[in-house]
Design a protein that fits this description.
The complex is a heterodimer.
Chain A: H1 2-18, H2 22-45, H3 53-56, E1 57-58, H4 61-71, E2 85-100, E3 103-117, E4 122-138, E5 143-146, E6 152-154, H5 155-170, H6 176-179, H7 182-206
Parallel strand pairs in A: 1-5, 2-6
Antiparallel strand pairs in A: 2-3, 3-4, 4-5
Chain B: H1 3-19, H2 27-33, H3 39-44, H4 47-61, H5 71-85, H6 103-118, H7 127-136, H8 143-164, H9 179-193, E1 205-206, E2 209-210, H10 212-223, E3 241-244, E4 252-255, E5 258-267, E6 270-274, E7 284-286, E8 298-302
Antiparallel strand pairs in B: 1-2, 3-8, 4-5, 4-8, 5-6, 6-7
Helix pairs in contact in B: 2-4, 4-5, 5-6, 5-7, 5-8, 6-7, 6-8, 9-10
The chains are: A alpha/beta, B alpha+beta.
């Protein structure tokens, strides 16, 4: 009888060692979810327009419709860093990830520097601790960021994007203003102002 | 020049032809034209029909038909067209439905091919109005007559294929845009994306403002490859473009409701040039995969008309 009892104990221990515990399974899920959030934040921080976003973001039907109205004819997943609304940040940190079944919420702490109100209207908007909740959803294969908040890009990445425009503007012909249409003048003026603001933000950070 | 302008031009030419109708029966001219082609079709066709047809062709070419190259092709086309002509060239005609069924494109190409053999200068208006002139004035209204016309078109296509020794659908002129020429188009597109930029203007076709189809048209024109303007809805029927399976630089990408110009080096990670939408961003580099939600893309390549030295 004792022998049977011991064998059962050994079998139980072996089984226990071979299969993950509920706690271990939780850890794995949380790690996967955290990894999805980290990838999402990094992609935005580095100025990803589409390639990573499409692999990390799921939209609800209502949100997708709204994004499609914003982005048409381009994909709803596309972010136009020279046109859309977004925030400019200097750092991010994934503080916490909480899961409940196939849903989850991640808390991310950003240091905000400025924001774009859309159509290249960039304004200074400092916030030392910008705490953002990001919804997550699990589809049985991977964790997705669900209906994300406004995108957040690093100052370096947005400055790099505007570097192209800065070079363009240096090559403007003499007398272009007289020849240009009001719409063209408006675009040039907006870009010049954005570059000016970005430069002053850079100077502030460096100080 | 767009199709509407061409229609106006056609009307003017019709008027000229009416005014000069007496000249079509000039025996001296007919003698001259009778030398072109082979005896088979000469026996089948009345001289005055052929003479009239050639005069019409010349009218559109802006020069006399000459040379002996491709005369059999000319003969075949003339024979078919002669059957369509009936009487009263230059009188008012209808606009048969089948023109909208892709046949216009096919015939337009046939005539452009014929021009290639003539060595004459291509004019944007030549193919389609000429075909319309030949077809619209023919007395066919019954269904069987319409079918007969389509049959004849198929026969013509076979003749052209035989002469070109290749599939007409792929490359009727044997002169699609080369990658170097495509690069010229991409270079103009790049210039449009530079300061002071090209804002979205609905119906616009210039650097000062353009929509997607207007930008493609304006860029092609500026690069030296003009074509009759087509918005995205009718672009697939434009006789100046042929569908291709894989794009090369300068090709046009047609999505449902949108158009762009392919350039694998448009910008970092971007492979097309395109306008956006009303109130949207200025013309610039984009990524072709961004448009896939619109539907599948079909690439089109410009068939460079003869006479374009670029």
């Amino acid at each position: 009888m004792l022998l049977i009892k011991n064998l059962c104990m050994v079998a139980f221990l072996l089984l226990h060692m071979a299969t993950p515990t509920f706690a271990e399974m939780d850890d794995e899920l949380i790690n996967n979810a955290r990894s999805a959030v980290e990838s999402f934040c990094k992609a935005e921080f580095e100025g990803d327009r589409f390639d990573q976003r499409i692999k990390l973001i799921k939209f609800s039907p209502a949100r997708e419709k709204k994004e499609w109205q914003r982005s048409w004819p381009e994909s709803p997943w596309v972010v136009f860093w020279d046109w859309d609304r977004f925030y400019i940040v200097s750092s991010y940190k994934v503080v916490d990830v909480k899961l409940s079944g196939k849903r989850g919420i991640a808390t991310v702490e950003y240091r905000r520097i400025a924001e774009s109100k859309g159509k290249e209207k960039i304004i200074s908007s400092y916030k030392e601790q910008d705490i953002i909740k990001i919804d997550l959803i699990y589809d049985g294969k991977q964790w997705w960021v669900f209906d994300p908040p406004l995108p957040r890009i690093s100052l370096k990445a947005i400055v790099d994007i505007y570097k192209v425009f800065e070079d363009d503007l240096l090559h403007l012909e003499k007398g272009w203003f007289e020849k240009a249409t009001p719409e063209q003048r408006a675009i040039v003026t907006r870009k010049m102002e954005s570059i000016k603001i970005l430069k002053s933000l850079q100077n502030e950070i460096e100080r | 020049m767009d199709w509407e302008d061409e229609d106006m031009e056609k009307k003017d030419i019709d008027k000229d032809i009416d005014n000069n109708e007496a000249n079509y029966y000039d025996d001296e001219d007919l003698e001259k034209y009778a030398d072109i082609g082979n005896s088979d079709w000469q026996t089948e066709l009345k001289k005055w029909e052929l003479g009239r047809y050639f005069r019409t062709v010349e009218h559109y070419y802006g020069g006399r038909i000459g040379g002996t190259t491709g005369e059999r092709l000319v003969g075949e086309i003339a024979r078919t067209a002669g059957k369509f002509l009936g009487s009263g060239i230059g009188s008012a005609g209808g606009d048969p439905d089948w023109l909208a069924e892709g046949n216009a494109r096919k015939l337009g190409r046939l005539f452009r091919t014929a021009e290639h053999y003539y060595g004459g200068e291509i004019r944007p208006s030549t193919g389609k109005p000429l075909m319309r002139l030949a077809i619209c004035h023919s007395p066919f209204e019954a269904k069987e007559e319409k079918e007969y016309v389509i049959e004849e078109l198929e026969r013509l296509t076979t003749v052209v294929r035989k002469y070109l020794k290749q599939d007409i659908r792929r490359d009727p002129l044997g002169q699609p845009l080369t990658p170097q020429q495509g690069q010229q188009i991409a270079d103009v597109a790049k210039a449009w994306s530079k300061a002071p930029y090209t804002p979205y203007v609905s119906g616009g076709k210039t650097r000062a403002g353009a929509d997607c189809s207007g930008a493609v048209w304006g860029i092609y024109k500026e690069a030296g490859y003009p074509y009759p303007y087509s918005p995205s809805v009718t672009f697939s029927k434009n006789p100046y473009f042929t569908p291709v399976s894989a794009p090369q630089v300068g090709d046009v990408g047609l999505y449902p409701g949108h158009m762009a110009i392919y350039d694998p080096n448009a910008s970092k990670g971007m492979d097309v040039w395109s306008a956006s939408r009303p109130g949207g961003r200025a013309f610039g580099p984009r990524k072709s995969s961004w448009y896939l939600k619109l539907g599948p893309v079909q690439w089109y390549r410009y068939n460079k008309p003869i006479g374009n030295s670029k």
